[in-house]
Amino acid sequence: MRLRLGMAKPALPLIPLLRAEETVPDADVLATWHAALSNAVGVELPHTLLALWLYPDGGGVALLAPEELAQDNLPVPVPDPVLTGEQTAAVAAIVLRAYPSVLCLPVRLGHRDVGLLLLADLTPDRYGEAERVLAGRVAEALAPSLALLARRWSPGPEGQTDVASAVTAAWTEARSPRDLFARVSGAMRPRLPHDLLEVLIPGPAPGQQYRLAGHPGPPPWGDPALVVGRDRLDLVALFEGEPVFRALDVTTRPDWPADLFAEELPAGQAIRSVLGTRVMSSGHLAAHLLVMSTTPDLYQAADAALLEEAGRLLAPKIEAYVLGSQLYIVRKQLGTLRSAPAHLTRIADMLATTPKLADATRRLAEEVRAMLPCDRITLAVRMVEGDRVVMLEPGETRHLADLPLVPVAGTTVGQVLRSELADALMESGSHAELIVPLRVAGRIVGAIVLTGRGYGAIGRSDIAQVQQLADILAPHVELARRTATMPAPVAPGWKRTSR
């Protein structure tokens, strides 16, 4: 079977296809293909010698044909990741000792060289600029086949990558998710080249994904920078119910943001080829495993089998990480619940015995931080009727009456103060904020606002105990509020007279 590539002049020869999707062709197949290639190219590019070298993904150089050339021990340079003009010229200079006409040029796919093409002829001045251009187009036509062969190539059983063994070794040696998947990436790269490997697990909120391959360790889901929202990447829509997703060039897809994972790549580069698989564990979806490359048209359908094998091997470990994270949260919540009564009792005793409001609020903040992972505590206190409050920070020494009034109309705090909301929990990728009312004798005299760093730092499970805290605190706030709004007493000995 042959494929005609290109229609520009001079006409590109019919390039015979080299099949390497499943296994590496044996020596007889390579020799037959080389003979067919030489005959096809020789019509437009006459030559006495056509030589091809391969740059396997595992490193090194492999002579594809003709095998007789191996006896000459021709020094062939290794690209890094591409060959320079000086390197190809050096090879050509050596061959020129035996052949008056030589063309030597790399076979390049994307940003790396996958092979080296050499044409030589005994006729002097055989090759000019037109022949060089045509030889370059031949190299372009050969690039996809050689890239696929470079991925499969191995000099022998000892050079093959055993994915199962590599994953098992990484499993036992890794100290964190990030360490594990970095080791897995390195083990898989010779057989499945990629610039980035990512494992996406369900994130802390519906529709979100968490980049487990970048997670350094506990606490779970602790880095907001690793959370990917559905508005950025909708994996359900991307996979469309299929077990595998393959894109030859995601820059042409509107559902893949151009800057996605850009921070993991060198400046100016972007993800082009993507291959992904769903990782199933115990009958449910545990994660999505993706490999990505800056080279377009890199992944073939046959590559999915290797990625799916890796997904099956990694599924128990991924599931263990997820379950461990969930258990971490449950233990944390149970610990908080066990200690909450003692904390609330201590807070009530502290508020009853501390005469100064500044000291009481400062100590209150310390006790609350011991109960919940909050970074900021603010009290919104109603001093007048309407939608204006004073914002009291812990340790504030100024009199309540001296604090500025802040309008809260149209805000969530205002809604809680007007009883439009019983409470409010607001979450973003960087923080969580909980607002509950301060209630006294059926009236709302203010609100307590707790802010925690990181998504999920404060959750709906915390509302009940925070409301209990607010109910203990509210009478003391009301006392301070009433004291601040009372008129100043008239000094004894003075008598009011009318004029």
What does this structure look like?
The chain is α+β, with helices and mostly antiparallel strands. Helix content is 35%, strand content 21%. It is built from ten helices and 18 strands. Strands 9-8-7-12-11-10 form a six-stranded antiparallel beta sheet. A hairpin with a 5-residue loop joins strand 13 and strand 14. The N and C termini lie far apart (117 Å). 33% of the residues are buried. The N terminus is likely disordered.
Number of helices: 10
Distance between the termini: 117 Å
The order of strands across the largest sheet is 9-8-7-12-11-10
- Number of strand segments: 18
**Low-pLDDT residue spans:** 1-8, 155-161
Specify the biggest β-sheet: 6 strands, antiparallel
Give the overall pLDDT as a whole number: 82
Radius of gyration: 35 Å
Order of helices and strands: EEHEEHEEHHHEEEHEEEHHEEEHEEEH
Strand content: 15-25%
Category from helices, strands and their pairing: alpha+beta
